[in-house]
Amino acid sequence: MTKKTLYRIRNWKAYNASLVARGSITVWISEDAKKGWLHRGSRYQGRPFVFSDAAIMTALTIRCVYRLPLRQTEGFLLSIFDLLGLTLPIPDYSTLSLRAKNLRVDLHCRTGTPLHLILDSTGLKVRGDGEWKRKWYGMNGHRKWRKLHLGINPQTHEIEAVELTSSCVHDATPVPRLLKQVQPPILSMTADGSFDRINVYYALWKQHIPPVIPPRKGAKIRRWRKDPKDGRWKKHVHCMDSRDAAVRTIRKIGKRRWKRESHYHQRSLVETAMFRQKRILGGEIRSRRIQNQRTEAAIRCRVLNIMTQLGMPESIKVS
Predict the structure, then answer these.
(1) Averaged over 206-229, what is the pLDDT?
(2) 274/120 Cα distance (integer angstroms)
(3) 225 and 233 in contact (C-beta within 8 Å)?
(4) Domain with 239 in it
(5) Is residue 281 domain-resident?
(6) Hey, is 5 helix, strand or coil?
(7) What's the pLDDT score for residue 213?
């Protein structure tokens, strides 16, 4: 029987304080948000906004952190502002729903240096029956899911890119859009075998990003390849050179050694980020429209980044 590896958190006092701070209302309602609560932007045709984007962001963030419906979010903010003695108006639930459609969300990343990016995706439930009813009465046609695509920085554990799509979209499809969201230079991109597709290699090749993607089982070096630009078969496509190099290396030293030498196993950190998402914020999306769902998914990632910056455990191997 294999002995289980034990770890110990060496910064428990600081990490425990960060866990307590996650529930503090002062973390989620900042002084900058209170000062810029009302809209002061340029005038435009039509009825002007009453609340700024920062106010809408604060309200939707509180909704996400405390898992509240929109009406309860309105009441929660009314009581908080009343206790703080603030005379600022509170956006009602319909305003929050309408403004969330086109709200631009900053993921609140601290990263400014070149990074190694890790990509993967998971499912979030939108609506449908619970697990108990599904088990006893079978599948229901109204049960729906969305696919959440994440890009993680393994050094800081922050989410650098996020994309929400329907459940029928392949994991590799939104890769070009995820790469555009990352501001610092990307040193490499790590993903599992489902990203072993020509459109992924082409998007990485255009930005000069080395891929760390294990070729699928039985992968071969193809002499004739389809160009992703015009769809024609050509003698050579340079974007596949890195994949062919990985195939040759795996044939020579084996896949296990290739994963160890290419640091492929750090991909498990994106699985940790997905587990934290569902454990802390829940495994479902409350919004009903796809535009609002994308905003909610981005706010979930923003909340997780703020919690990460408050403090993370530092584990050391004991035995």
Answers:
(1) 80
(2) 9
(3) yes
(4) 115-270
(5) no
(6) coil
(7) 93
The number of C-alpha atoms within 13 Å of 15 and in the hemisphere containing its C-beta is 9
- Model confidence pTM above 0.90: no
State which amino acid sits at residue 18. Answer: S
Residues 245 and 124 in one domain: yes
> What b/e string do you get for 271-294 counting C-beta neighbours within 10 Å, with b at 16 or more?
eebbeebbeebeeebbbeeeebbb
Which two structure tokens, joined as six digits, stand for 206? 């255009």
CA distance 278 to 43: 41
Q: What is the pLDDT of residues 179-206, one digit of tens each?
A: 999 988 999 999 999 999 888 998 999 9
Which range, of 23-37, 118-132, 260-274, averages the lowest pLDDT? 118-132
Clarify whether residues 66 and 197 are in a common domain: no
Buried b (16+ CB within 10 A) or exposed e, 23-37: eeeeebbeeebeebb
Structure tokens at 272: 């940790």
The residues pairing with 116 across neighbouring beta strands, listed in sequence order, are 188
> Which strand (E) or helix (H) includes residue 115?
strand 115-127
Q: Do 314 and 11 touch, CB atoms closer than 8 A?
A: yes
